[in-house]
Amino acid sequence: MLPTNDIISVGDWVRGTTIYGELVVGYVEAIEESYQTIKVKVISSDNEDIMEKSAELLLHKVNKLNTVQPVSEDELYDLIDLALVTNDKQWFLELTSELNNKTNVRSSNDSSYALSNYSEY
Questions:
Q1: Contact 112, 103 (CB under 8 A)
Q2: How far apart are CA 45 and CA 25, in angstroms?
Q3: In this structure, are residues 30 and 39 in contact, taking their beta carbons and an 8 Å threshold?
Q4: Count of domains observed in the chain
Q5: Taking 70 as the threshold, does the pLDDT of residue 101 lie above it?
Q6: Residue 69: what pLDDT?
Q7: Who's near 14: CB < 8 A, 6+ residues apart?
Q8: Which residue range is the domain that position 14 belongs to?
Q9: CA-to-CA distance for 113 and 109, rounded, in angstroms?
Q10: What is this structure's pTM?
Q11: What is the dihedral sign for C-alpha 66, 72, 73, 78?
């Protein structure tokens, strides 16, 4: 069982091993507590065939990754691109809001331009 501060939730980034021994990094799509498994969208793996697919992992073979807050606008743009690639609308909205706040601090005239590349989402 995971310590209280390491409780895994949907959307968390994790690293673990599949039941076939494949190393994966991805985000949690679903949790099946009764079977002690989680469904992970694989972003990186030592098996290229499972990348961009979902994999089931045993909960005790998963470690929650620490989250780091982006500090620069460039990092935010990179994460926004990742949110688009992974089709994570909620994360996209959070990141664009944070980017908008950063650009508003810098210059209120530039804030509408900062998000113009992502207005179609």
A1: no
A2: 6
A3: yes
A4: 2
A5: yes
A6: 73
A7: 8, 25, 26, 27, 28, 38, 40, 57, 62, 63, 64, 65
A8: 4-64
A9: 8
A10: 0.60
A11: negative
Same domain, 56 and 81: no
The span from the CA of 28 to the CA of 38, in Å, is 7
28 contacts 39 by C-beta, under 8 angstroms? yes
Confidence of residue 120 (pLDDT cuts 50, 70, 90): low
pLDDT band at 107 (very low <50, low <70, confident <90, very high): low
* CATH at 27: 2.30.30.140
Q: For residue 10, give Cα distances in angstroms to 24, 108, 109, 121.
A: 16, 35, 37, 22
How many H-runs (helices) and E-runs (strands) does the chain carry? 3, 4
Three-class DSSP category at 86: coil
Classified as helix, coil or strand, 30 is strand
